[in-house]
Write a structure and sequence with these properties.
20 strands, ten-stranded mixed beta sheet, FAD/NAD(P)-binding domain, disordered C terminus, Helicase, Ruva Protein, domain 3, D-Amino Acid Oxidase, Chain A, domain 2, disordered N terminus, oxidoreductase, G3P_DH_FAD-dep, alpha+beta, 4 domains, globular
Length: 730
Amino acid sequence: MAFQKAVKGTILVGGGALATVLGLSQFTHYRRKQVNLAYVEAAECVSEPVNREPPSREAQIMSLQNTSEFDILVIGGGATGSGCALDAVTRGYTGLKTALVERDDFSSGTSSRSTKLIHGGVRYLQKAIMKLDIEQYRMVKEALHERANLLEIAPHLSAPLPIMLPIYKWWQLPYYWVGIKLYDLVAGSNCLKSSYVLSKSRALEHFPMLQKDKLVGAIVYYDGQHNDARMNLAIALTAARYGAATANYMEVVSLLKKTDPQTGTERVSGARCKDVLTGQEFDVRAKCVINATGPFTDSVRKMDNKDAAAICQPSAGVHIVMPGYYSPESMGLLDPATSDGRVIFFLPWQKMTIAGTTDTPTDITNHPIPSEEDINFILNEVRNYLSCDVEVRRGDVLAAWSGIRPLVTDPKSADTQSISRNHVVDVSESGLITIAGGKWTTYRSMAEDTINAAIKTHNLKAGPSRTVGLFLQGGKDWSPTLYIRLVQDYGLESEVAQHLATTYGDKAFEVAKMASVTGKRWPVVGVRLVSEFPYIEAEVKYGIKEYACTAVDMISRRTRLAFLNVQAAEEALPRIVELMGRELNWDDYKKEEELETAKKFLYYEMGYKSRSEQLTDRSEISLMPSDIDRYKKRFHKFDEDQKGFITIVDVQRVLESINIQMDENTLHEILNEVDLNKNGQVELNEFLQLMSAIQKGRVSGSRLAILMKTAEENLDRRVTIPVDRSCGGL
């Protein structure tokens, strides 16, 4: 009864606010519909893509070199830069002649290291209402429109996701209910599904691992979720199909300038580019140059004008990935007020659980590293919301990464110290156009604003933007049942088929055609790169067609292995390098270089270093005396000779005695994980350090610990029968 009264009371609490926002929301929605008529009109007269498939990287570089002058040159291959290229090349009947260059790989920076949400921003709406901030309201409204569009144009890469907001105090129920209902209301016709209230018992049914003490109930609302790196790549590939000359690993070393004959002033007229893979340099000329480099915005601005004031204020956001059992398969969680006032999301993603993010000032770097402090902060916040029955262990962090969010100040604003809540389009005196700030969800509208500014500033001839409703690569002929055809037509495992369908969309058939025969009765084709993930070898070959040039490209952005499990990614690396080497004609030296570079990437940027430091030769042994005795007995079942250490030979002997077969290379890998001083053997002290770290939750899933426990249990079950009772002997 009290629960129902609280819900009913919210109608009175929020009535005035609802009415106010309703009027503003409906007016804005009306204006949006009028603008959309122009979009539809423009879209009807635009031709199909120039290329059925994106041209090869070599062909794209030839286009960059041989084109006398482009209309638009975009610097930066993240979501915003790729969005700018797609917007420009699809304008009007023929589009603008467009080029895009990226120093690293497409989506190698912030765009692949997000929270994976497509959202308007509940917290921004809260601030907009509490502070009567019309700018934040417009940003939320715009983001909600863009959310709906992105879910429509890339249905294979995105989907609505219900997110639970648990309530632990009665007074919070009406407060948050009003806020979430306003979020639905502002979305208008773009509302994915209506939010709803759950009782305590229903909340625990949906999210059984939730902390139940003092739980009042929960509110569930809907936002979108996507595969961010693949989404970014789809935008870039679509731009390439429409005729944009796009090239990754193409660094801008300087800007070109020429004197305007009418004004006598210097104008930016292109860029000097360097192929990072070959070292070749050449000029790319363009009427307009767009700086869409995210955190590196100021470095390009200073190429134009060395005295340009810095406008980027970088902030690091760390995320961690944990096993899928930490969250329901189709329900996320929002912590709206952490211990230090931040917001933490706890979301299912790719059958794992992603948690984040932090928000701390940082230096700009090409290789951001997640700190142990930030990882532990997220873990502590997760512990606050999960049941005490669920032990949140440091060892369950399978991957961790840091992304640099490029917060910006508006150089045209009177208050240059104030961070802009929205994106900023700036035009320098020499005509360089900079797009900065904003968020992943609004990449398309940011690109539209940028190209509009380019057309106006440089007197380019082009029609209106037509990217609303324009399908991205793989989206047009995708359907939720497409994976069934992959299973039936090619003999793929159902899990693999679903993965291919939700990664490549209608292009999944091309990947399936390249899949290797397994030699088994089932599946017929589709050799996996690593057993516990649905990635197959054919994706490596297809990834090269998608401009993958390095092993890092493959494990982090063509597949998402590095973001899901660093150990699994490391396990798959040798085969990935072998397959890429075969396709790209790498010699042995190049293969070894790629392998080491990828391992370094996993170690520093994807949290492997932080994970490995949970067990070192300096780790303390904090065990009860009874536990020490128990683990010593287990150890001595392998160390029969009382040497004080065990080797591969000792482990093989015990395994053979209980009829378990394991190849020597695998055993070597297993022992190497615990061999802290790297002398080829596991000493008693190292084993006790391992068991202590496991008890504290710093290490989980140790293959040696599980193997030794299993072997001990098997040995203990073998009871020796005395001769006088065995019916034997004479």
